[in-house]
Amino acid sequence: MTAPLHFQSIAELSEHLAARRISSVELTQAVIARTKAVESRVHAFNSFDEPDALAQAAASDSRRAGGQSCGALDGIPIGLKDVIAVSGQPLTASSKMLANFVSPYNATVTESLQGAGAVLHGRLNCDEFAMGSSTENSAFGPAHNPWDLTRTPGGSSGGSAAALAAGAAIATLGSDTGGSIRQPAALCGLVGLKPTYGLISRFGLIAYASSLDQIGPFARTVEDAAIVLGAIAGHDPRDSTSFKTEIPDYRAELKRRRGPWKLGIPEEYFGAGLDPEVGAAVEKAIAFYKAQGCEIREVSLPHTHYCLDAYYVIATAEASSNLARYDGIRYGHRSREAKDVLDVYQKSRAEGFGDEVKRRIILGTYVLSSGYYDAYYLRAQKVRTLIRQDFLNAYREVDALITPTSPLPAFKLGEKSADPLAMYLCDIYTIGVNLAGLPALSLPCGFTAGGLPIGLQLIGQPFREADLLATAHAYEQAHDWHTKFASL
Ligand code: GLN
Predict the structure, then answer these.
(1) 178 lines ligand 1 (CB under 6 A)
(2) In the prediction, which pLDDT does 272 show?
């Protein structure tokens, strides 16, 4: 039985569009209808603009009718995390600070998707300024996991994951600073790819921690992730950290690169704190690769236990600097209570930012302050080098690493929101990848007895996304997890 339109993949839908079995307007209407049916329960969207989406869809249909050649994304509804700028649309970062802000320009990824003909549908909920692992830090209220509405979809890109898992988009974009694409992908049963630092332009992405942030796709299948990645990857002169590198045809390479691969199991990623059902599902995936003839080796990433500490020094330091721009003067929230200019700064920031954002600004300002800079920030940067070196050493022996994505399946909303440290521990397996600048993806590898999705993380080598995707594709094609959908 074929899935309803809103649950189909880009690969399937693009064929229907090409064969004129459906139009983009019909598809977009179906996705909008689904969005309206589920949104009051899932709360994945900060906003969506129905007339605008339908106008984009109509434009796609007339391109096709006019005989223009249309790529796989032409006419496909794609949602963007509300930290990615779309000209003329709200851009809030799920913060009161930007609650009334409308973006005057496009992010580079937005232009790339528009250039590929995608229908940009909606601004997706997230933790405020992408800080968090559950969307509970959103100033507009949390998103809910479509597999169990009492649970979190993960975060910070939880709305991007929830929308896709609920059928309210065909693919989405998120951003990943310490796990914000991979962890929600794992908790919602999706593919989520965090590309190599520098592969995708950050121009027009609201900055959280600039040396760690990277935009990437959420998709139903590895092939769909490859399609979206191909559309957004590449050098951009407007982002000096974007890298000049050849962009392969990721989709075509999926079928060309077949392994067997040498896969490393980092012993530090299977210790205390790992949920037994998650551990068992990942072990099964490892056994699958072994049965395919892959060589499986234990490796060690000895500085793993410093990842969280280094991350929360570096990320908060960069956040404190990046968020200094929200001062109530040029844009964003301005306090009505302010009497003088100092008051404008202080009251606007006090009223505009939520607790977690303030906590990080305070911590980040502290670790950068003179007298403490060497002890914290500089030291964390040195530790970061050691962490990257661990991975590069492992890659002398293996092609990629296999780990769980998240130590736990989706947890209950409210369960961790009062305990920042418990929340920070959700990213224990994802953060090292950002510190090292590597590509990694999460893909579904099973369900708990209670029906919650489990994610497998594959970590690859810099700029070798094509290999990473092919490794994931080999697993996906031999399993049917991606054909299961949340019922709601
Ligand atoms: N949960 C991590 C944090 O709160 C990662 C967030 C992210 O990747 N944006 O910083």
Answers:
(1) yes
(2) 85
Mean pLDDT of the residues in the chain: 97
pLDDT value of position 421: 86
Centre of ligand 1 from the C-alpha of residue 311, in Å: 9
Burial of 103 (0-12, 13-18, 19+ CB in 10 A): buried
CA of 424 to the centre of ligand 1 (A): 8
Tell me how far the alpha carbon of residue 212 lies from the centroid of ligand 1, in angstroms.
10
Ordered strands of the 453-459 beta sheet = 45-47, 119-124, 77-81, 171-176, 214-219, 191-194, 440-447, 453-459, 400-404, 262-266, 295-299
Q: Are 87 and 103 in contact (CB under 8 A)?
A: yes
- For tokens 């969307």, name the residue: 135
What pLDDT, on a 0 to 100 scale, did the predictor assign at position 1?
61
Residue bearing the CA closest to ligand 1, atom 5: 178
61 CB-near residues (< 8 Å, 6+ apart): 23, 24, 25, 75
Low-confidence ranges of the chain (pLDDT < 50): none
- The question of whether 320 is a catalytic residue gets the answer no
User: How far is the C-alpha of 160 from the C-alpha of 114, rounded, in Å?
Assistant: 18
Decide if 9 is catalytic: no
Q: Under a CB-based contact definition with an 8 Å cutoff, are residues 395 and 389 in contact?
A: no
Does the Cβ of 160 fall within 6 Å of ligand 1?
no
Which of 83, 95, 157, 180, when mutated, tests ligand 1's pocket best, judged by the most ligand atoms within 8 Å of its CB?
180
The Cα 115–Cα 402 span in angstroms is: 35
Residues sharing a CB contact under 8 Å with residue 196, sequence separation 6 or more, in sequence order: 214, 243, 437, 438, 439, 462, 463, 464, 465
Looking from the CA of 120 toward its CB, the CA atoms found within 13 Å total 25
What is the CATH topology of the domain spanning 5-265+395-483?
Amidase signature (AS) enzymes (3.90.1300)
C-beta atoms surrounding 237 within 10 Å: 10
Residue 177 Cβ inside 6 Å of ligand 1? The answer reads yes
Q: Which of 59, 61, 35, 38 is nearest to 49 (CA)?
A: 35
Which pLDDT score, from 0 to 100, does residue 299 have? 98
Measured over the CA atoms of residue 291, residue 255, residue 235 and residue 208, the dihedral's sign is negative
pLDDT of residue 257: 87
CB 195 within 8 A of CB 466: no
Ranges of each domain in the chain: 5-265+395-483
Q: Is 382 among the residues known to form the active site? A: no
Angle (nearest 5°) at CA 314 between 101 and 320: 35
pLDDT at 2: 85
pLDDT, residue 188, reads 98
